[in-house]
Amino acid sequence: LQAGRTGRNAPDLAPAWMRDYLVEKRREPLDEDAISEYFPAPETVRGALAALERLFGLRLRPAGSSSEAWHPEAGLYEARDSDSDELLGTFYLDLYARPGKPERPEVFVLSRGRRLADGRYRPPACAVLAGWRPAAPGRPVRLRHGRQSDLEDFFHAMGHVLSVLLSRSKYGRCSGAAFSPDFAEAPALLLARLAWQPDIAIWISGRGGDPAQRLPAAWLGRAAQARAAGSSLGALEETAFALYDLLSHSGASPGDPGELYRGLFRRVAMLPVTSGTHPENADDRLVEEPGRAAARIIAGLAAEELWRRVKEDGLSNPIAGRRLRTLLLEPGAGRETASLRAYLDRRPSWRLVPEPSSWPSRPWDTEPREKTAAAGRRLLR
Length: 381
Hints:
The protein is α+β, with helices and mostly antiparallel strands. The chain contains 16 helices and seven strands. A hairpin with a 5-residue loop joins strand 5 and strand 6.
């Protein structure tokens, strides 16, 4: 910004407190209220479920009475195979704001699937809770799809739901609910990309619930660009933190942890820590999940590989969707590497660019990622 305004070179690194401001200044203007009019919550949820039905060969329908649910707004759904009508599992959708609920969708496993002694399979069950609320009292609930995307979050949550429901492992402890941290996010990150595919997002949309008034493709492109702004910087921060986590818990870098943190964030994330602050003391992930901060990056690499294969097979190809179910999700936990190889029909490549879920799929991924790629390769080595 300074260079463009004055013609002189700007400082190499912006201070941490200025980073978000600079990202917002680079972001193109976007009328997010106008875009949200095309995504009324009930119709958008039905459309998203219909898209998943087409992709996976499923029927995701209300199960009738949910009188045993914890609240009248919690709707019970069944997941059935579209050919055999076999019940694969059940899930609740409780998506509207009430006190104590999370704002963004979260998935809770209620029971894991497993093979019973008589040979039958006990279907799993889970619930999605969210806190969607109207923009103003008395107005209908509409989903955001821009800098923040409720539609992307919902597809992400359904990735976790289908990981649980489509697993057919013999034991509950090996179900899709127990995927390793390096893989657990991969199906969710994969499905989150559907929110930015024109043939899906535009098909789901309808202004005020009217399917005859679809979201203009140019608007979706601008929304994706707004979503992507700053995502490369965020990926570098995630990489720097993963390196700090690994070095701190491996004993490979003894000495002052604050100095290690500041050095990594300056070199890798291009983010100098504000003098006199100690952000390394404020992140509870270092205590709760030591040594596992790289898991999301590795899951992002796996999701990129999966996405490439899904695009090759075709988003509307029911045979390809069943192949995804059979080879990747049905085996469950403990076989993640073998399942990934079987689905890709080759060894996965770990030299791709890590892509967090905040990066929409191309052609609207606009920021250069060479530094992210180099940092990711160093981390994985």
